[in-house]
Amino acid sequence: MLNLQFDHYTIRVTNLERSSRFYMDVLGLKEIKNRTEKSNIRWFSMGGNMELHINEGEKENISTTVGVHMAMRLRNFDAFIEHIEKNKITLHNSKGEPNCITIRTDGIRQVYFQDPDGYWIEVNEAELLYS
């Protein structure tokens, strides 16, 4: 039996410093050692052994849609919404409609927004289910 586990997710960005600041300041991700030691890549912890790798380079032929996104969960959803709004980031629902929050059938709230390069991110309060 294969025992695959999630390792990392990599995105290609046009400005490494701008995107790194977004992921550190807006999402609170902690930068970790870039084991490739390449100057055009930065690594961030996403909890446990999961990582986000940000790679600066051409973004040609990379398109984004709200249906393809990275998702994270937390407990204090309301505080996160306040934080996002303070950073002047437009929230969307799961259909990409601005200034809306999605409430799943199980009652969990979720929002979507884009990073500086247009990648979609979901944040939800599903951690409440795992408490």
Describe the overall structure:
The structure is a single chain. With 131 residues, the chain is α/β, with parallel strands linked by helices. The protein has two domains: 8-56, Signal recognition particle alu RNA binding heterodimer, srp9/1 (2-Layer Sandwich), CATH 3.30.720; 69-130, 2,3-Dihydroxybiphenyl 1,2-Dioxygenase, domain 1 (Roll). Helix content is 16%, strand content 29%. The chain has helices at 16-26, 77-86; strands spanning 8-13, 30-32, 41-45, 51-56, 69-73, 102-103, 109-114, 120-124. The strands form two sheets. It has a four-stranded mixed sheet with strand order 1-4-3-2, with helices on one face. Strand 6 and strand 7 (109-114) form a beta hairpin. The longest helix has 11 residues, at 16-26. The radius of gyration is 15 Å and the shape is globular. The chain starts with 7 loop residues before the first strand and ends in a 7-residue tail after the last strand. 13% of the residues are buried. The mean pLDDT is 93.
